[in-house]
What we know:
The structure holds 2 protein chains of 2 kinds. By secondary structure, chain A is mainly beta. In chain A, 0% of the residues lie in helices and 60% in strands. Chain B is mainly β. Chain B contains no helices and 11 strands. The chains are: A mainly beta, B mainly beta. The A-B interface holds A 4, 31-32, 34, 36, 41-46, 49, 51, 87, 91, 95, 97-102 and B 4, 40-45, 48, 50, 56, 58, 90, 92, 100, 102-108.
Amino acid sequence: EDQVTQSPEALRLQEGESSSLNCSYTVSGLRGLFWYRQDPGKGPEFLFTLYSAGEEKEKERLKATLTKKESFLHITAPKPEDSATYLCVMNTGFQKLVFGTGTRLLVSP
Amino acid sequence: NAGVTQTPKFQVLKTGQSMTLQCAQDMNHEYMSWYRQDPGMGLRLIHYSVGAGITDQGEVPNGYNVSRSTTEDFPLRLLSAAPSQTSVYFCASRFDGVGVNEQFFGPGTRLTVL
């Protein structure tokens, strides 16, 4: 069964304290992996798409990487406005997306 | 562009009532979908559509109906609401061309069924 597992469930950081969020997946045929950010009371907002192992994408303080079994979202020198839930989503084929349950990130000033 | 819009933002129903959640997008996306988000679970696909007049079931379709008469609109109907349908509902759309295309989500409808 295709599965996405995100860890940790929750992460509390001090402003400027870098860390990484993990997304491990088991899938018969990965056809892309997405990272989304979700703020409380809002819909998910697209961040990155990764297609193949070794690929990296960056946006401001965020960098997403992909291996054959995992994806990481690295957060460098986070700010309080980076506080949100980060969702990992796997695309396994036509119309088939598998969502992780997310990592709730809280960045304190 | 307004993107994906949903109404209402909040709704409380009694068991057995029916209602329609509205979704519209102005990006000319062919593909539209409905998800529900429950605590401790990832988003789950309810129904989706690849174009006007074409709909199909997702992972959790029971108790919900959809139709797609235009490219822009994709309403979700609850036929006879049950407490198990208490959830946050998200509508999403994406370009349906070649490749892996990200979805754009609406702001959600928080539904409580008493």
